[in-house]
Amino acid sequence: MSGSIPFYQKHHRHYDRGYRSRxxxxxxxxxxxxxxxxxxxxxxxxxxIRAATYTSLEEGGISPLPKRAKPTYLAMDKENQxxxxxxxxxxxxxxxxxxxSDTEEARAKESAxxxxxxxxxxxxxxxxxxxxxxxxxxxxxxxxxxxxxxRIHENEEYHKRLNEDSLxxxxxxxxxxxxxxxxxxxxxxxxCTISGWPEPRVVWYKNNVSIxxxxxxxxxxxxxxxxxxxxxxxxxxxDDTAQYRVxxxxxxxxxxAFASVVVKRFKGEFDESLPSPRxxxxxxxxxxxxxxxxxxxxxxxxxxxxxxxxxEGETLSLGCSVIxxxxxxxxxxxxxxxxxxxxxxxxxxxxTHWSGDRATLTLTHLNKEDEGLYTLRVITKSGFETHxxxxxxxxxxxxxAGAPGAPLDVYCQDANKDYVIVTWKQPAVDGGSTILGYFVxxxxxxxxxxxQCNDTPVKFAxxxxxxxxxxxxxxxxxxxxxxxxxxxxxxxxxxxxxMDPADRTRKGAxxxxxxxxIVTEEEPVEGVVPGRPCDLTVIEATKNxxxxxxxxxxxxxxxxVMYYVEKCVSGTDSWQRVNTEIPVKSPRFALFDLAEGxxxxxxxxxxxxxxxxxxxxxxxxxxxxxxxxxxxxxxxxVPTRNTDTSVVVSWEGSREAKELVGYYIENxxxxxxxxxxxNNKPVKGTRFVCHGLTTGESYIxxxxxxxAAGISExxxxxxxxxxxxxxxxxxxxxxxxxxxxxxxxxxLAWKQPTFxxxxxxxxxxxxxxxxxxxxxxxxxxxNIRSVSERAYRVSELKExxxxxxxxxxxxxxxxxxxxxTSEVFKCEEWTIAxxxxxxxxxxxEVRKDSLVLLWKPPVYQGRDGVNGYYIDIKEAxxxxxxxxxxxxxxxxxxxxxxxxxxxxQxxxxxxxxQNKAGVGRASEPTEPVEAVTKPGTTEIVVNVxxxxxxxxxxxxxxxxxxxxxxxxxxxxxxxxxxxxxMETKGNKSKAIFNTPSExxxxxxxxxxxxxxxxxxxxxLSEEALKELLKVxxxxxxxxxxxxxxxxxxxxxxxxVRFWLQAEKISANGKVEYVFNDNMISQGEKxxxxxxxxxxxxxxxxxxxxxxxxxxxxxxLQDGKATNQSSLVLIGDVFKQxxxxxxxxxxxxxxxxxxxxxxxxxxxxxxxxxVRLKCKVGNMKKDSxxxxxxxxxxxxxxxxxxxxxxxxxxEITQISKKDAGVYEVVLKDDRGKDTSxxxxxxxxxxxxxxxxxxxxxxxxxxxxxQSTEEGIRLYSFVNYYNxxxxxxxxxxxxxxxxxxxxxxGVVGEQLWLQISEPTDKDKGKYAIEFFDGKGGLRRTVELAxxxxxxxxxxxxxxxxxxxxxxxxxxxxxxxxDVVTIQEGKALNLTCNISGDPVPEVTWxxxxxxxxxxxxxxxxxxxxxxxxxxITGVNTADSGKYSILVKNKYGTESGDxxxxxxxxxxxxxxxx
Length: 1470
What we know:
1470 residues, mainly beta, disordered N terminus
């Protein structure tokens, strides 16, 4: 039957339900094809097209063929006539789907197998040859087809008798996988070796479920190479405990092998902060292998990101710095980011960056889908390191107050040709009112238009969207709605194509075309009515819709089919077609508008162009309603302490919850009645860590479950819990060493655990065991009761026996795990003379350049008592040879402050004890300590209160609930101090000296437990004690502090104010006023005021008389505090104050009428005008202002403007005549005021100097100008005044003016003329303006090129002037036109000038004339030229010119002579 099924149906999901795995189906069909490659195309012909696969036999008696025949793909009918070609279906896509030949190696093995079988099958027969039939041999093959078919049939029969099993065999396990037991978070690898032919296909299973590496990226890794197959499981957890099966299958059969993996948790590991087994393994020397040259990479993740909070729409970045040692540029780590154990790939929502030392993940646009546990994995060739933290995403503020949060996780499933089912998750925040439902929007990919898919909101979190266009892709989003409004849209779904799933699978294959599949199919049957659909079921039913699903009919014809859906009410036989207009293409259909509560039956018909087929079997009666119930409320909620800002919440899951999506957790501060969501993305477990809580607050919690049907009711509220760090059993102690050893006992010491579990360590338990011949014995308890010190004597030991020890720490949470076993110690009595090692080294008061080291004396003193200690130091990373001493002289105390440290450097310390015999063995070194002052570090502050009590105060901002302040003197804890009293309130502690004295001298320190080493100290020396006692005395016998002493000031009207101000005075404060030892009180003369809020004490007097000369005193008293202040007003001081008071009184009276606010003054404008002005006040309409000069009134043309309060008088072109005394008088009915300005003598000079200064500042820079006489230097000013005094300088010396060098003024130009300049005139010139002060200079350099250019221009101008003066000229005397009667004589004379004497030429009509009897031309004395015509006739009419010429130029004079005849003229007149 397989030959009659079209190839595109062989992988259709509805074709053969017997194949539960498409991969299995593809593999078996491949093996069947390979095994029957010689017999699948036998003489059995079908109605459809048949393709011949191989023609490989040499035939005798037939026309000769080429040596190598090629395969053909000719299509023939029943009579073996060629009717066309068969297009090959490539094998590459088929093989890619099967998973058998996806590499070149596999294809090569298959080819080799085929050749081996061919050689075997052809033994005893002539060698077979394959041939591809090209177009050139088509006609010849047509003639030989019948004979070839016969030979093929005979060859098939021959191969059937051969034993193919001689090469093929079922898979066999050469090496089976082994079972493993591993620690949690370790990796495990299962591997096996498998043989078999054809090469078997290997599949791994976990509890009989196939493992898909892509479902959990990074979790599983499958490898196959040369018959060796392995499964690697990364970071094992409890869920990985299972039975694993590896299955190998080929065409000959299947074989399996089993292995178990058990994952164990490390004992005592309750928190990530506790040491993990992997880290412990590194401490004992474990090193992960590296494949590259034996290098082991150590990876450290620092500057880790923590729990983060964001809001929808924001951008959030997570980052860690990564340190890899050794740092090799060519080996870069692989950086992977995970969210909830799913590998993140870069997209528009997620961006990753690796800079070489820092890994960053950026969430470009936060949505609630981004909430979850983020993990950074740094992978090197030696292993990997990870860091994880949770990211919480809060809802964005709604567009409408009270609107719900946006839905999340919109996903498309069950997509088909014209419909898709959209699913989503409900939001945690409903806005305060129940969510009424959801609207689904769709948008076609490539457009921006969103269309709403449902008219009414649906409450079910699943909705079938119909009416899609086949072949187009869509994205979807969902919005929630309540009575307040609509939420923001959710994040859009991934695009989904509306098409048949089989077509999607077929088009989705992207393997290269590497082979061919030869397919034969029957000729299509046309005009066949399709059969009945089968397996019609209701796959989903809600009160809003019902979704039907069925399988296409087997006999549906060649063309595609569509479907009609019919319904009827249960119990009736009245079928009604639902989709009457358009049949559906997909074997799915959603029915809406059904009556809720009614029962319906459904059936489906197929249709095509041939007609409508028979209906399917009807479904069973289906009642319209939600089949999926809302889950029940979760059970008991139990919160547990976790950290200072988080709580672990556990609850009992909802019972019988179907399709559970997860849970939402909410918290509320006790008494607030306000609930806030802890998570905005449902969590599937029944345990969640709620972060972002306030330390010290008490919270209650509640939980509700979510599935597609809705959100359950809230669980019962949990009990209240205070947010603070959880308590766990402590980590193991470490660093066990021996302090003393005698015959039957040993004193041990150890170091405090690095993690105390959040509570004080209550004690330690010591165990010991004997070691005999290297074999350790059974552990024995050394102490039944815990010991509080970190040193203990283990008794009842055996002399000369070897022992090992371990120590466990205990707190209120329990006893922790034991420490690592100590070294082997021999119990024998010490007889050395030097002391043993000190122990219990502690570091306090760590600062950037110092710290304090404490230790305890050695238990073993040696021959004599210890008399001192030496401290050694070295950098933490330095070699052991780098130990160096801190003190050269032995220290007799058990503490020492170590100074001169380098900031940021880490150090370790050790101590050695000394006695008379020498220096003993060094103690165990401390842990590395970094020299740095941590943020928030404070020091002890000494304070003396108001009662004189001296105290030491220490404040710590990093306290927790279990922290305590421990005060010490000389670093010995003061448990019951007699001389001090301790008080602690909140984060402050105070040590009060009862009676400070020399007995209290020493170093006082305070240490805060359960912090990161918060401590400080204060040294009370003799000098400090004396100062404190003095301050204490001042506080016991206080003085009222004064901000100001008694002072006096004058007020308006000359009123006198005496005042002082105390810094602080209570309401009970009193003051007494004393004058010359006599009490004075409130009265007509004295007015007193005492403001106790500000501490200001005042006394007022209207005026001062002679009797008021003396001493004024204010005496203050406030409880037991007193003070006084005095002011002496005697002699000149009193007289000056009295005079000033009188003046102020007169001024006040003056200002009652019109008065001058600013008295008369003047200013010089930039235009060099002098403006007299004064500012007046208290003017009214009838107030007048009169101007006077030298007692004579000045008439002001401008009208006075009192609104601006300024009177002005402007004097332009100021001169000496403007000097005088100017006066302005203001007056009205209230009085008058006068202001005078003296502008005579010195006053006038000062004013003119200001004018000169303005003129000088307006001057331009000196410029150079050449003239015909010489060189001129000049400067312009805005205005020139005759009184302006200007001095010219040459080479910084004043110029003595001569006939050759002159100065002058032309308008606003000031000039200096240098006639006939010479080289002596070169140099720097300056003009100096005098303004009565420093003056102003303008300079110019007349030298070099400037002088040369000016001199050349002077010579040119001089020559031009000479030429102009001496050139030939016609001075005058010639008329323009001469009209003369014929016969008359004409005589014209003109003056001629020029040096040398010019030549004179007369012209008539442009022709030169010569003197004769008729024309007499004369030039006499070089100055006079005459022109005479003795008897004029008509021929003399014309244009005449005189031309004078010398070496400097030429000039001409023209005139016209017109001759007339008297008769003609007379006739004309008549």
